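Appendix B, Record 12. Input sequence as logged:
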Amino acid sequence: MGGRLQDARDYERNAAALIREDERPAFHLTPCCGWMNDPNGFSYYGGKYHLFYQYNPYGMHWATMHWGHAVSEDLLRWEYLPAALAPDAPYDCDGCFSGSATRLDDGRQLLMYTGVRQEKLADGGIRDVQVQCLAAGDGTDYKKYEGNPVISSSMLPEGASTADFRDPKIWRKSDGSFCCAVASRAADGSGQILLYESGDGFRWSFWKVLAGNHGRLGRMWECPDFFSLDGNQLLILSPQDMVADGEYHSGNGTVCIIGDFDEKTGCFRERQNQCIDCGIDFYAPQTLLAPDGRRIMIAWMQNWDSCAIREGGAWSSQMTLPRELSVRDGRLIQQPVRELERFRGAKLAGGEFCFSGEKRLEGLHGRLVDMELDIRPDAGDSPCHVFRIRLAEGLGFHTDIMYRPYEGTLSLDRRFSGSRRALLHVQESRLFRTEPGLRLRVVLDKYSVEVFANGGEQVMTAVFYTDIRADGISFCSDGKLSLGVEAYSLGA
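Logged structural output:
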């Protein structure tokens, strides 16, 4: 092996050796070194979970994309493997963009990814040409297919963009054949998802347009995932340039469309759609089917609108906790993978508390905490209108979770977390349930918080890079409130 892939492997080996383990989160995957964004090829292969990721090993910013690679036996403790792909072929010389993975009948793992090269236009401008490519290997080393690209621009429907054609999600159909969903921009500039099919995983043909946004839910749709769950078919998307509407926020968001799918005809009928994560930092989710039948999702715990929040350090960006998915009452439900509970250590706090004003619980502090709360405003003459959970508190810093029971809203506020950048720091979401009272699970892992409301009906995620010494946790209510608390330290 030589060339750009070997260069990347040599560089990351040396650079990673300079990063102390305690500089990283305990359970959220960070890049081996440098920059990461979208999760790729999230899969179970050879007895381990594999997670590849968009990767620039050489710097703390997005650049010519490689694929980083890590494996885990429990979805929480990750081991770095050498970089899997580098942009070293004519069809991907300007980037190996996002993709997915499956298993071939001969036992090899098949990676499907978007290859990017840039071409000069007559007016002097530059445009991407994006195509879909393959590489097969043994779980560590992968060889690009000599027939790449397997899906080229000649296989696009009429008018579709060659510059916005990416992120293939591959799966096996019930008859053993292969199918993939690819993000595309239609002739009118709107987002659409295309279906391609193959008998052997290598020779592909266009099948049909699976779905399109038709002027709603953002513009370009990225990072599709398509799977069945609890008797439903789910299409997961990351739309760009959304306009705030209902539970959706402006900017780059995530959407789950729940409907029905006929595998024979390729027809997908939408029943409803919802926001996947209502917080600040969540994009490009991807799922796998675990050996025990669970559908598990992971996402880039960052957003293109807030990348500059990370200042300094030896790595940039991280992934969310893997989340178990289900559908309940027509809505997507998310919970941290059950494996996390194995890492609960000392009980930091527990019990029922009635109070008004500020409340601190002896022993409740830390930046590695798994905490369950049952919040019940008093219906008497001095009810609570605003309840606050303050995290990573100290040295003049804090990040807040705010619940307004009679407005039915939940918000994240990291304005005072220590960031020097004028980014999006506050996000508010209207709760699906409107009656006063809220159950929360709050998971802290050094530089992030993930908030699961009412059994995972709604989720909010944010990163913050507050000095690790700021580890206070406190509560505050402007009226009478009953609070049930069960909190544990987390340890690897």
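The chain has a mean pLDDT of 96.
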